[in-house]
Structures are given as C-alpha cells and as structure tokens.
C-alpha cells in the first residue's frame, strides 16, 4: 500500500528531495512525501480507493500535476514524473555557440536479430549553433561527424560498418547535418528541421529537441545543454545491406534511433581546459 514515484529531469537525472503532495477530489491534502537522493518516493500511508491529484514541486523546477487512481489494494503507482527546469522556455543568449565534443555524445541504436539492440557512438564530431537575436525560428545548427569514428565495442562489426555495405567511409568520410528551420513543440521542446547528408544521400531529417538549460562552467564560460532524438531508415540513405536468417528474421533492423546529448559553449571557440 502507499505511493511510489520517480522524479526525473527531462534528461533523465534524479531530482532529489522533490516534494510530492496528494489531494483528494475535494482538494484536501491526504499525503505529503519527499523524494530521496535518487529521486524516488516510497510512502506507506494507506489511501482509500478513488481518484486523486498528485502535485510534484522542487526548487528550480516548474510544478507538475497529474491524476492518480488508487486501487482496492490502497496502492498508488504514479510512475516517473518529469520536471522541466523553471524558465526552461528561455533560450540561450543570442549569438554563436560551439559544440563541445568532450562533454557531448552522438549515439545510435539498431535492432539486432529482432530481439535485442546494438548500441554505437561516433567519437569524433563538432559543430556550431547560432541563436538568432530576433526570430528564434531563424536560428541555425551545423554539425559534422567523422564516419570512421563509429564505435560499437566490436572491432569486426565496426570494420563492417565502415565498409561499402554501410557508411562507406572511403567515399563518404563525413556525415553532415544543416538545419533549415526551428518550430516550438512544447514548453521547452523544439523541432529542428534540417538536411542530413549520410552515405552520399541528402534527406530531410527532423530532430526532436529538448532544451535543458544554461549555466556557468568552471572555466569561466557559459554552457547550454540539449538532448535530441531522431529515427532514420537505412534504406532512405541507400544502405540496403542485410542478412536474413533461416527463421526469416533480419539480422539488422531497418531503422536506426539516434540520440544526441549536446553541450555547447557560448562563443565560437572552445575553452583550452
């Protein structure tokens, strides 16, 4: 019996010591609990079956409210509650920003044998972000990834991915992305419209972008953090290789999920630290 919940930021970090308040349909508070250092809430207060409102607050974050149904067991499983940083809709200051590859990651996941996933990342990349001063929709992003830097943790697999069956790094050493527009998709979420050049093919690709906030770094600079995702179809980029197993299952899935965790430093140069 009781209430369980996990409190997280949009980028998946625990929000420690968030406060969860539960009220019944009359607005009366029936439970108040504090999350632990891992962002977890476990309260054993017995609740009568019925509908409740759950409000989550934390210093520096916008409050979140949701409905919860308590079953006959007296248990309320709220699940994961995601909090947005207070003022998260404010974009970084206008001007140039430089992607810091040391504190960023470019990862991709493909389905393997229909039952599991293969995870890879590119270790060499860079790029710039230009925040437009007047019209945010005119902001620009450009990024370049060195195709040969693919790393899936398996040398034989990486060699195959670099071959003509996939990335063909000899003919197409760079993967590039250039934005063409930006539209708001939520309080601190945006859709970046752009063109991806991969394996010699240029296709429009949208990125689902979450802006995670801006803050000072230890080197006297200002940093902005973003998380972006996209789903690509291999056939859209002329990578049609596959091996079909006896059971008729493809060895490698036809889609690729891309996840970007980006830190950008204000200005057009990176710190020397």
TrEMBL record:
Recorded hits in PANTHER family, A to Z, give: PROTEIN YCEI
Q: Which family does it belong to?
A: Belongs to the UPF0312 family.
What stretches pass through the bilayer?
Answer: none
Q: What is this protein called?
A: YceI family protein
Annotated organism of origin = Streptomyces bangladeshensis
**Residue limits of the Lipid/polyisoprenoid-binding YceI-like domain?**
96-265
């Amino acid at each position: 019996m009781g209430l369980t919940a996990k409190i997280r930021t949009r980028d998946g970090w625990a929000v420690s010591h968030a406060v969860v308040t539960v009220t019944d349909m009359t607005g009366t508070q029936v439970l108040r609990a504090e999350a632990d250092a891992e962002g977890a809430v476990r309260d054993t207060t017995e609740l009568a079956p019925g509908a409740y409102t759950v409000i989550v607050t934390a210093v520096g974050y916008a409050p979140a409210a949701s409905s919860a149904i308590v079953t006959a067991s007296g248990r309320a499983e709220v699940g994961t509650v995601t909090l947005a940083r207070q003022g998260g809709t404010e974009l970084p200051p206008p001007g140039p920003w430089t992607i810091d590859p040391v504190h960023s990651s470019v990862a991709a996941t493909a389905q393997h044998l229909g039952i599991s996933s293969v995870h890879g990342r590119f270790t060499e990349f860079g790029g710039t972000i230009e925040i437009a001063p007047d019209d945010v929709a005119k902001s620009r992003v450009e990024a370049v990834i060195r195709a040969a830097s693919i790393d899936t943790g398996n040398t034989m697999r990486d060699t195959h991915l670099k071959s003509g069956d996939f990335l063909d790094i000899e003919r197409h050493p760079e993967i590039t992305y250039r934005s063409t527009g930006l539209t708001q998709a939520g309080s601190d979420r945006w859709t970046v419209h752009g063109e991806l050049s991969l394996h010699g093919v240029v296709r429009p690709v949208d990125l689902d972008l979450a802006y995670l906030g801006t803050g000072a770094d230890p080197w006297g600079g200002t940093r902005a953090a973003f998380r972006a995702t996209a789903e690509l179809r291999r056939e859209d980029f002329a990578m049609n290789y596959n091996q079909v197993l006896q059971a008729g299952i493809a060895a490698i899935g036809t889609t690729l999920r891309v996840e970007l965790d980006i830190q950008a430093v204000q200005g057009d140069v990176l710190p020397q630290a």
